[in-house]
Amino acid sequence: MKVGYGVGEIGWGRRAAVVAVDFQSAFTSPEFPLGGGDHIAAAVRCAAEVVAAARAADVLVVHTAVGWSNVQEFGRWKIPALLEIEPGSPGAQIDPLVWDPSDTYLLKRYPSAFFGTDLSSILQRNDIDTVLVMGATTSGCVRATVVDSFSHGFRTFVVEDGCGDQDAEAHASNLRDVGRRYADIIDARTAIHHLAGATRQAAAVS
Question: Cα(182)–Cα(185) distance, rounded to whole angstroms?
Answer without folding.
Answer: 10
